[in-house]
Amino acid sequence: MGLASSYGIVRRHQGDISVESREERGSTFTVRFPAAHKPTSSSPELNAQRVAFKPRILVVDDVEPLVALLKEALVQYGEKIFTASSGNVAVELFKRNPVDLVIYDLGMEGMNGWQVGEAIKDYSEKKGIRKPIFILLTGWAGQVHQQNNLSASGVDAIVEKPVDIPTLLTVVQELADMRHRGVAG
Question: Whole-prediction pTM value?
Answer without folding.
Answer: 0.70
